[in-house]
């Protein structure tokens, strides 16, 4: 074989490799474009959360001035996936309570789970805090609200989710859930149901705001 033949053979091999590489790139591009089109056509909707109820086992402000809060709740949250063809992976979800934008309990983690099409999940985590320091102005306001008989809290859930379309799974998105809960201390019988020693269950069944 002459040098000319070797050079021609090497050139043909490089040409074949380039064709294979470009074919792979085109195929990947078509797959990616198809996924984007499917994603745009399906237009995934955010999960819908409902705060079903909250059971208050403890809620006390102490200190002088009042700046320490001890609380213990059990809340029931339901989540529904409204999509027909898109599933939701909850990689992380942490529930806690807040008062006037200040976190007043520790975070409770919900186990990672997958939510199928039109599926509903219900969680009943405990959220609590022992002598949690709160801002002085919030402490005074909280003590005053408790004396007046009504306190408005935010039950929150922060986490990360992924969407599943067929075999395609997206990257992680932040999930923020905000639910309002009113606790009445003036008349327990009128506001909730006594379920144990110093425990009162409040039923809400109200929608929460959700952002992704």
From TrEMBL:
Domain Late embryogenesis abundant protein LEA-2 subgroup: 76-179
One GO term describing the cellular component: plasma membrane
Alphabetically ordered keywords of this record: Membrane, Transmembrane, Transmembrane helix
Membrane protein topology class: Single-pass membrane protein
Location(s) in or outside the cell: Membrane
GO BP field: defense response to other organism
Xref: InterPro entries: LEA_2 (IPR004864), NDR1-like (IPR044839)
Ranges annotated as spanning the membrane: 20-42
Keyword Transmembrane helix: yes
Stated name of the protein: Late embryogenesis abundant protein LEA-2 subgroup domain-containing protein
Organism the protein comes from: Brassica cretica
């Amino acid at each position: 074989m002459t040098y000319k033949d070797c050079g021609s053979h090497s050139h043909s091999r490089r040409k074949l490799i380039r064709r294979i590489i470009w074919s792979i790139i085109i195929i990947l591009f078509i797959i990616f474009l198809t996924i984007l089109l499917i994603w745009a056509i399906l237009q995934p909707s955010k999960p819908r959360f409902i705060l079903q109820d909250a059971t208050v086992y403890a809620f006390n402000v102490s200190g002088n001035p009042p700046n320490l809060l001890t609380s213990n709740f059990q809340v029931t949250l339901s989540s529904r996936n409204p999509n027909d063809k898109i599933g939701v992976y909850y990689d992380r979800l942490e529930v806690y309570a807040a008062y006037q934008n200040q976190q007043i309990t520790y975070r409770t983690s919900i186990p990672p789970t997958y939510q199928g099409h039109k599926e509903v999940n219900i969680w009943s985590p405990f959220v609590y805090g022992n002598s949690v320091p709160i801002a002085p102005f919030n402490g005074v306001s909280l003590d005053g609200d408790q004396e007046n008989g009504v306190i408005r809290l935010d039950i929150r859930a922060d986490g990360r989710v992924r969407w599943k379309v067929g075999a395609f799974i997206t990257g992680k998105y932040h999930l923020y859930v905000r639910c309002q809960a009113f606790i009445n201390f003036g008349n327990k019988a009128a506001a909730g149901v006594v379920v144990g020693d110093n425990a009162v269950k409040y039923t809400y069944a109200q929608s929460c705001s959700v952002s992704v």
